[in-house]
Amino acid sequence: MGIDFFKVEDALKEAYMRGETRFNAYTVAFWSNQSDILAVNNYLLSKNGNVLEARIEFLCDENNHPTGSIKFGEKIPPSITCHICQNEFIPSLEFSNIIFNFSNPLSRSSTKQEKKKLQLVT
Ligand SMILES: [Zn+2]
User: Fold this and answer.
1) pLDDT beneath 70: ranges in the chain
2) Closest by alpha carbon to 100, among 7, 39, 20?
3) Model pTM?
4) Rounded to the nearest whole angstrom, what is the distance from the C-alpha of residue 81 to the centroid of ligand 1?
5) Which CA distances in Å does 120 have to 10, 110, 114, 116, 117?
6) Residue 51 to residues 44, 102, 114: CA-CA distances in angstroms?
7) Residue 57 Cα, ligand 1 centroid: separation in angstroms?
């Protein structure tokens, strides 16, 4: 299975213009109508440090709360205290999500300006 990189790029551009933050491969696959989540994830990871910033978010082992994110490639801390339920747990990559943000997100005001520009064009 492959993915349509053009559709993924378009979806990312649109997400950027909307001012999206904190998305994952599932979200991007949904936006771009792709079914190969792993390929989308690998593609997003290839943009880490360039357009995107990838982080690993661990799941609290008691309640599955997403908490304690680290930069992708950063050392995993020996323990994390969940910021929601205060449960202390040993983070494991098996129970983690990879999440993405834009390295240089548009500020709210510029998002509005860009949106206005877009409306003028269409
Ligand atoms: Zn928790």
Assistant:
1) 1, 107-122
2) 20
3) 0.80
4) 8
5) 19, 15, 10, 6, 5
6) 9, 6, 18
7) 12
Q: 53 C-alpha vs ligand 1 centroid, how far in Å?
A: 24
**Element holding 16 (H helix, E strand):** helix 5-18
CB 34 within 8 A of CB 22: no
Q: Which two tokens stand for residue 39?
A: 């390929």
Share of the chain above pLDDT 70, in %: 86
Say what the pLDDT of residue 106 is.
77
Centre of ligand 1 to C-alpha 44, Å, is 27
**What does the block give as tokens for 78?**
């020996």
Q: Which long-range contacts (CB under 8 A, 24 or more apart) does 81-84 make?
A: 84/60
Ligand 1 centroid to residue 37 C-alpha, Å: 26
